[in-house]
Specification:
Elements: H1 3-33, H2 40-53, H3 61-64, H4 68-73, H5 84-107, H6 109-119, H7 146-151, H8 155-168, H9 190-197, H10 214-219, H11 244-260, H12 265-273, H13 287-298, H14 302-305
Helix pairs in contact: 2-11, 5-6, 5-8, 6-11
C-alpha cells in the first residue's frame, strides 16, 4: 500500500471519528429529551480518552505489529488483492484472530490492562465505543494477527481490516436497540454486546466476536441476554473517575503495584499472564473464583451458611 493509497484511508477514519462523536452527541440529546437517562459525565470522559488516544496513533505499524513485514516477505502465498475472495478470506481471518485477541484481552492481565479502558464506562451508549486504550498499539494487540501476514496478507491490509472491524462495532454500543430476532447468535448485535459489557457474574467473559458470533458459538463463549437479568455496566469494581489519565492507566498502575510486591518468579508470571484477579496465595478474584464463591453462598444448608464472604470490591482487579 503506497502513501497515496494510505492517505484516503486515514482521511476516511478521521471523518468516521467525527461522525461517531456527532452521532453519540445526537443520541445523548435525544435520550435526555426523552428522559431515558443519559450520563453526560461518562460521555465527556469517553471523548477525552478518545482525544488522548490520537497521540498514540502515531506509533508505526512496524512497532505495533512486530515481525509483520518480515513474515509477509516470507509469506506462504502471494494473494491477488484485486480478487474478491482475497478480501473475503481476510475478513474471515481477521474475525478469527480478533476473537482470540479479544478473549485474551479479558483472560490475560497484560492485555486486560489496556482493554479495561473500554470496559470502564459505567454507562452503555455510543460514546463508550470510542473509549479505547492508549497503550494497545504498544502492548501487542496486533501480534494476534501476525499469522495472516505469513499466509500472504499485507500488514497494511490486515490493519485496515482490523480498523473496519472496530468501526462495525460502533453501532452495537447503542443500549436502546432491542434484540434483532434471528440475527442474535450470528451477528454481534447490541444485545450480544450489552452482555459483553455487563459486569454481572453470569455475563462475564462472553461474546468476544467482532462482527460475527460464530467463534463464540464454536468455542462456548456465547451468552444471550436474559430478561430476568438486567445488565450492570462497567467493571466488577466500578471505576468512578472521569479523569482520562486515570482511566487510561489505572490498570497499569495496579499491575505495577502487584509486580512490585511479587515474591517469586511464579508470582510475576501469574500477575502478568494469569487472568485478572489472579493471586499467588489463593483463588483470588478471577471470574471462576467469584462464581464459585457466589455458588457456595447461594447453596442451601450448612455449606451455604459457612461459605466465605465475597472478596472485597477493592481486591477485584477487573
Amino acid at each position: 500500500m503506497t502513501l497515496s493509497e494510505a492517505v484516503p484511508l486515514r482521511t476516511l477514519l478521521i471523518a468516521m471519528g467525527g461522525l461517531a462523536v456527532a452521532l453519540a452527541l445526537i443520541e445523548g440529546v435525544v435520550l435526555t429529551w426523552l428522559r431515558r437517562g443519559y450520563d453526560w459525565g461518562e460521555s465527556l470522559a469517553s471523548l477525552a480518552v478518545a482525544v488522548g488516544r490520537r497521540l498514540f496513533e502515531a506509533v508505526p505499524l512496524a512497532v505495533a505489529m512486530p515481525g509483520g513485514f518480515w513474515l509477509y516477505e516470507h509469506r506462504l502465498w502471494t494473494l491477488p488483492l484485486d480478487a474478491w475472495w482475497t478480501w473475503l478470506a481476510l475478513f474471515a481471518g481477521v474475525e478469527f484472530c480478533y476473537y482470540w485477541y479479544h478473549r485474551c484481552a479479558h483472560r490475560v492481565r497484560w492485555f486486560w490492562a489496556s482493554h479495561a479502558v473500554h470496559h470502564s464506562a459505567n454507562a452503555f451508549n455510543l460514546s463508550a465505543a470510542y473509549r479505547l486504550s492508549w497503550t494497545g498499539r504498544l502492548t501487542g494487540t496486533l501480534v494476534f494477527f501476525l499469522p495472516l501476514a505469513w499466509l500472504g496478507f499485507p500488514p497494511q491490509a490486515i490493519a485496515a481490516a482490523f480498523v473496519l472491524n472496530l468501526l462495525y462495532q460502533f453501532w452495537i454500543h447503542a443500549g436502546w436497540i432491542p434484540r434483532l430476532g434471528p440475527l442474535e447468535g450470528i451477528l454481534n448485535t447490541p444485545s450480544a454486546h450489552r452482555v459483553h459489557h455487563a459486569a454481572n457474574l453470569d455475563y462475564l467473559d462472553a461474546n468476544y466476536g467482532g462482527v460475527l458470533l460464530v467463534f463464540d458459538r464454536l468455542f462456548g463463549t456465547w451468552v444471550p441476554e436474559r430478561d430476568d437479568l438486567p445488565c450492570r455496566y462497567g467493571l466488577v469494581e466500578p471505576l468512578t473517575s472521569r479523569n482520562p489519565f486515570r482511566i487510561a492507566f489505572f490498570q497499569w498502575v495496579a499491575l505495577l503495584r502487584d509486580l512490585r510486591g511479587a515474591r517469586s518468579p511464579r508470582a510475576v508470571a501469574g500477575y502478568l499472564f494469569g487472568p485478572p484477579g489472579w493471586a499467588p496465595d489463593g483463588p483470588g478474584t478471577t471470574t471462576e473464583a467469584l462464581r464459585a464463591c457466589a455458588a457456595r453462598a447461594a447453596a442451601p444448608g450448612p455449606s451455604g451458611a459457612d461459605a466465605p464472604a465475597m472478596p472485597p470490591a477493592a481486591a477485584v482487579a477487573r
